[in-house]
Amino acid sequence: MAATKSPYDLSALTIMPGWIDTHVHLDWHFDENHKIADRSKDSPASLVLYAAENAWMTLQGGFTTVQSVGSSTDKDVRDRINQGSLPGPRVLTSYRQIQGTNGNPEALRALVRKTKADGADLIKLFATQGLGSGGAQSMTQDQLDAVCGEAKAQKMRAIVHAISDAGAKAAVLAGCTSIEHGVFIKDDTLALMAQRGTYFDPNLLVLHNYLDLRNQFNFTPQVLDTLAKALDPAANTLRMARNAHVMVVFGTDAVAGAHGRNAEEFIYRVKDGGEKPMDALMSATSIAAASLGMGDTIGSIAPGYEADLVATLGNPIEDITAVRRVQFVMKGGRVYKNVK
After folding, report:
1. What does each C-alpha distance from 236 to 161, 195, 243, 263, 338 come to in angstroms?
2. Is 10 helix (H, G, I), strand (E, B) or coil?
3. Global confidence as pTM
């Protein structure tokens, strides 16, 4: 029997597995005045619409799976996408973010169980303050042990916002799955991460996004200065992680202004962080898939895997900026973009 000819001619393009962004915030958006929105004042219906819009832009940018970490809004968007009634990438959600102020270890264990019952796919927690606030450790070791230990008991992954080395190391010792940001991680903590199989997600795009769109965010001059001074340390930590053989995944921390531009992270990692283009691409495909516990279904082009494909005009291995020229996107065998 003759083979069936594909209706899509991709012979002039470079084909890859659909890209995976392990750290986004789908409902972050700008308001009608093009300023960062106060989401606490948005209606739930409005937030869902913003998240759906951002999900669509992300899919059009070549990302067929995302992990959105921090909003209950994600659940409705995830479920409608899974039902096939809303176009978007495959969504995993943490439903909420867990902080040290949420209580003692026993209260935190209960919150992990509640988060799972609420429909979350993973746990997101803060081991430190934000970069603009200094990044100091904000959870005790006992609290981190409780959250990540209970997550493991519930068969859930736990990814950790950690800016300082102390916070990151405490999270690694607690058995958490992935360290996010890690701007000031030191060599011994990276060595511990490599030894324990802890993933690392440096999130370079978010810093550039904040600085490039500074007039649309509400940062003080002091915070903007802190963000600008973090660019070089963040890129250097990525180099250090590669040298330490840490498993690096692809996440952008995409907030307002970054959705649909997630692929810029590839360019920052190669040009600023010194990554090899192939390493950057693998961090957004097979390695990211493994970090999500989905390495046997997405992240590769092989029999039995989801038919997730992205094709670019130009070869990103030769010119990393080709990731900006996405011409074709297929998710689960369905085509969502095909530039003729």
Report:
1. 18, 20, 11, 20, 37
2. coil
3. 0.96
Dihedrals phi, psi of 191, to nearest 5 degrees: -65, -40
DSSP codes of every residue in 245-286: T-EE-----B-TTTTT-TTHHHHHHHHTT---HHHHHHHTTH
Q: Work out whether the CA dihedral 49, 263, 160, 289 comes out positive or negative.
A: positive
Do the Cβ atoms of 89 and 124 come closer than 8 Å? no
- DSSP labels, 142-169: HHHHHHHHHHHHTT-EEEEEE-SHHHHH
DSSP H helical ranges for 176-245: 187-196, 205-212, 221-243
Largest CA distance in the chain: 69
Which whole-number Å values give the CA distances from 51 to 32, 44, 167, in the listed order?
16, 11, 30
Q: What is the pLDDT of residues 286-340, one digit of tens each?
A: 999 999 999 999 999 999 999 999 999 999 999 999 999 999 999 999 999 999 7
In DSSP terms, 326 is beta-bridged to: 312
Q: Using CA atoms, how far apart are residues 322 and 135, in angstroms rounded to an integer?
A: 34
